[in-house]
Each structure stands twice: as structure tokens, then as C-alpha cells.
Amino acid sequence: MSAFVLVLFCTCTVFSSEEEYPVKPVTLYVPYGPGGSTDLAARVLSSVIPQYLGQPVIVVNKPGAGGAICFEFVKNQRPDGYSIMMTAIGANVITPALQEKLPFKYDDLTYIARTQINPTLLAVRSDAPWKNMKELIAFIKNNPKKVKFSVSGLGTLLYVGPAVLMQAAGLPGDSITPIQYDSGAEATLALLRGDVDFIYVNLPPLLGHLRAGKLRGLATATPKRLKAFPDVPTFAELGFPDVDVLGWRGVAGPPKLPGYIVKKWEDAVKKTTKDKAWLKLVNKLGDMPGFLGQKDYEEFVNKDYKRFRTTFEKLGIVVKK
What we know:
By secondary structure, the protein is of the alpha/beta class. The chain contains 12 helices and 11 strands.
């Protein structure tokens, strides 16, 4: 009889935890520093999703090693749903595809849902001597290694975009010189100060500067021109269709995250990405809504990883063990 009562108690406890989750605030870890596009996306998400999740979401920045530090940290957390990672193409696909020596694989996390996609843009200062991409490429060709661009880590979009561009232009990868910064925001400030010559990054950190006329976009990696900047051509229009490095955001948790937690987050993210307040804020960031549920998001990440792994092997930039 006592055994029956114990089994019944345990069963009820499990069902109760499924029904009650979350019972305390959830921490959303960001793989990059404050002020960058991933950080901004996380803070927008955390401002709206609590009404659908049922608890506050606290954003904590955990930058370093192109997102690898945050990835490994979340991977090693208890799969209880209280440690979630704000995913991004750099930390979750590019870094693992570039570096074989990492203590994790790209698919070690439980991918829950995608929230949005992020247009990427190559920009220079408004007073730069290059008025278009053709002029910039010609200068790089005739002045190898003199042109500097800002990056926020080896495994970030800021590094990979220019590398793919050099390949598409038929130039050696070392034709341009990367300058390291701690975050996308700092990398953008470096361009504004004149410490570097160009940046290839998600649109959000550039928006205000582009609208203020401090920066000028030369090309965007989007299927069609951006409504906000119709004068900026796409890479495809310029003869570089393979330069299609687009950013994206989403959420993931530790391995073996229980199905009921995944479902709770997936449903909350879906409702959030339809919320008018979230849509308004995301539009201000320059992002585009791009919800994908758990199954589709996992498949999307798999395809993106394989695509970039193949590209990096062709470029010869994979860091071996």
C-alpha cells in the first residue's frame, strides 16, 4: 500500500511540475556583449515573452570565443528550463563549423524555436573614398592587406562575411586585415572612429548611423533590397550571389530538455512573434519576423551548419584539432 502511495505521489509531482513550469524567473544567456544585435534581440524578447511564459526572463551576457563560452556554459546546465540561450548564427553554426577543437558540437543543444532573421550589410563611413562595392573590391585588389575590417571573434558573422566575399571576388582570404573587438557594438564604433575601413554585420547596430548619414551601405545580403535602404544593392545584384550570410536568432536549452519545457517555450515564442509590441520593436531593430517551431528550427540549423562547414573547408579556414 505504501509503495502504491509513493508511486502515486511521484507521478503527481511530475505532472505538477509540467503544469507549473516555470515557477521562477528564467535566465536567457546571450553569447555576445551588451549592445550588439543578439543582445538587443534578447532584450526585446525578454520584454514581451513573460506574458506568454508566465515568469520574468532575465538577460545575462556571457561573451567570449565567438559565442563558444556561452554555448558550453548552457550545455552544461541542468535541463530544467531555467537556463536558456539566445541562439545566433555565429555562436551556434559558424563557430562550431570553423573550429574542430571545441568541447561541443553544434547540435549538442536542444533547439527550441527561431524568432527572427537579420539582414546583414557591408558598410563604410560616409566619407570613405569608395562609393560602391566595385570601387572597394578594386582597391583591395590593388592594395592587399591595407583595408581593415572589424570583427568580434573568429567564429562570428563579422569575420565570415568578409571571408566569403573575398572568395566570391576571387581574392585571397588575407587580402583584408581583421581587427578584433569584444562585441558587435564596439566593432561598429571602431568603424565610426576610423580605426577600420568597413564592417559586415547585422543591420541593427548600423541602423541609427545609416539614418544619420554617418555610414553608407555598399551591399546587403538579402534576397531583395531593404525597404528602409532602397539605394543599397544586394550582393546578388552586384554579381556575388554566394555572399548570402544572413543572421538569425532563436532560443535553445541544454541537452535532453524535457518535451514539456520545449513545448512551453515553443508556444510562448510563437505567440510572442505575433505580438504587436514585439513586432514593433523588432522592426525598429531592422530585423524580420521568422518563427520556426522546434522541428523546423532543428532542421534549419542542421542545414545551415552543413552549408557553412562546406564553405569553410573550401576556404581552407577550418581550425583543426
